[in-house]
């Protein structure tokens, strides 16, 4: 039996309890809107107007009667929710990686390096050659050393390798610490916006707004649900 073709055009509207899932889908390149204060009625109207598929949790009949483009996630774990959405809608989790802002859903585009010199730490500007800017919120991103770790965690999530390592000889090792684990990043959710945060070792798909004196991530798990 042939596998269904990957869905790369679907657009989502995430309910207020699915903020981490929304950011994960944005990381994969999927157009996903989210507001922590949205009501069921407003979410329905927004999805209807823009042709989006609603992602939510819990009972549907009372909150979204007769709305067809909708999925109620079974798990309360963001990583499990992502796996469920990928499987249910036959998503392609790789082709759009790192093309969309995890903070606001805007598209990223490559910028001339000299344009961002004043917006990123001096060391980052020296070490990395490519920078990207969100068309909407203007955050600057760069593909740091933790991209390898993100890709490995994505492979674990998708069942391509096991969490103990499995056969990961094809995966590059972390440029930050030289190993499979890296310190300085919030734990793995593929959500919690670990991808725009900054560690003292650099890394990830990071953004300049995350930069503080202590190099703490700009978006911690729990900051928004």
Would you summarize the structure shown here?
With 225 residues, the protein is an alpha/beta fold.
Chain-wise SSE layout:
Layout: E1 12-14, H1 19-27, E2 32-34, H2 40-50, E3 53-57, E4 70-73, H3 78-89, E5 108-111, H4 122-127, E6 131-134, E7 140-143, H5 147-157, E8 205-207
Helix pairs in contact: 1-3
Give descriptors for this structure.
225 residues; alpha/beta; 4-stranded antiparallel β-sheet; 5 helices; 8 strands; 22% helix; 13% strand; globular; disordered C terminus
Shape: globular
Our count of domains comes out at: 2
What is the strand arrangement across the widest sheet? 2-1-3-4
Number of strands: 8
Mean pLDDT: 75
Largest sheet: 4 strands, parallel
Task: Give the helix level as a range of percent.
Answer: 10-25%
Radius of gyration from CA coordinates = 18 Å
Instruction: State the distance separating the first and last CA atoms.
Output: 39 Å
Structural class of the helices, strands and pairings?
alpha/beta
SS summary, helix count: 5
- Strand percent estimate: 5-15%
Series of secondary-structure elements, N-terminal to C-terminal: EHEHEEHEHEEHE
Q: Which spans of ≥5 residues are poorly predicted at pLDDT below 50?
A: 166-225
